[in-house]
Amino acid sequence: MRIVLGVGGGIAAYKSASLLRLFTEAGHNVSVIPTEASTRFVGVATWEALSGNPVSSSVFDEVEKVNHVRLGHEADLIVVAPATADLLARAAAGQANDLLTNTLLMARGPVFFAPAMHTEMWNHAATRANVETLRSRGAIVMEPAVGRLTGTDSGAGRLPEPEAIFAAAMAAAQDTGAAGSAAARPAGAGSLLGKTVTVTAGGTREPLDPVRFLGNRSSGKQGAALARAALDAGAHVRFIAAHMDIPAPDGVELTRVETALELRDAVHRAAPGSDVLIMAAAVADFRPDTNSDTKIKKRDDGTDPVITLVRNPDILAEAVQRRTEAAAGGGAARPVLIVGFAAETGDGSADVLDYGRQKLVRKGCDLLVLNRVGTSLVFGQDTTEVTLLSPQDSESVPAPTYAGTKMEIAHRIVARVAQELDAAVVPVR
Questions:
Q1: H/E run at residue 74
Q2: Is 216 part of the annotated catalytic residue set?
Q3: Quick one: which H or E segment has residue 37?
């Protein structure tokens, strides 16, 4: 794949050297276009050495090759990292005062911005308007990370780590067909612009004593992928994370929880202000009725402790019920769309699809993502297969089944969510 890597004039430009290495090691041909200001942070020689291609920021270099037209036309993907406030403003205004902005105007493939700037700059009304303009035109603008900035300040505006930018950019390229993917994303960048999406992820842990707990095999990978896909689609993402084997995605509003009861409280706080609730967390059905303050020890008499389990609340069903009650009381039915997950194994009584359909009816959610789980299936894996159930499924319009990486599946689910919101086919029960 032919990639143009645009580098803006910010201190975070040094991170783009690692991003360039990720692209080239994945086998892509990368042309780096730094702004003139960025070369004060990282020199042209570095970009040429790492990319193996000549580097310029001027439209007057190699005029015979018409670079200001050719580079944008030939690029399968353009990634700008860091995208400073100034660069976002120039791109949104359609300026063409250097080689990079010329190339952006000539782009035929997907364009991906990874912003980096001080928090006040990111939150300024002018920057927010520029971001919305770019997204409305189909560009993908990643949310910046939250953390230490230049100097002693911390906040939103930090450039996401190169690995996160690489993964999100590759997903964007695949979903638009730039990386050879057979299926394009049905709903593109900006399809959830202005929407708030709450995603739960990971597995809850129910404590037995200070060192032991009841848990499950959930890694949080699918929930994290859904959060990244929603960010790619332009949404503000509230991410409620139980135990996860991987870091939470950059750019989300993060809430950490451990138990099912803590997750329940977090969902009930976030859901009324959300357009979409996606319940991807693996929530324990039961918890110990007591939590010992001290470690449970083996008994000298050889008897075993008896652990009594009590049922945890059904958070998904409660969210649906609260929405129904709000609508009945004359309030807004929020969230507009509720998506549940079902991890099923099937048995002698029914198969996985039967159990999924029963759960869809029992929970009352608008969409249900059905997984077949088991040893070496789904939990902790990078690939998955899901069936997306809805109350509108019928023999003539059966539920679709998708297989692929969890990132690919996440984009499929987010695309369906965007379609449901646009069509307003959301029954309130």
A1: helix 67-74
A2: yes
A3: none
- The number of distinct structural domains making up the chain is 2
Q: pLDDT tens, 96-121?
A: 999 999 999 999 889 999 999 999 99
Looking at the DSSP assignment, which residues form a beta bridge with residue 388?
369
On whether residue 108 sits in a domain, the answer given is: yes
**Whose structure tokens read 């049922």?**
311
User: At residue 404, what is the residue type?
Assistant: G
Instruction: Provide the whole-model pTM.
Output: 0.60
206 and 255 housed in the same domain: yes
Q: Which among 216, 291, 312, 371 is annotated as catalytic?
A: 216
- By residue count, the chain amounts to 429
Q: CATH number of the domain at 147, please.
A: 3.40.50.1950
User: Residues comprising the binding site for CTP?
Assistant: 285, 295, 313-316, 341, 359, 363
pLDDT digits (tens, 9 = 90+) for 275-303: 999 999 999 999 999 888 888 888 888 88
Q: Locate 360 and state its tokens.
A: 């869809």
Exposed / middle / buried, residue 60 (Cβ in 10 Å: 0-12, 13-18, 19+): exposed
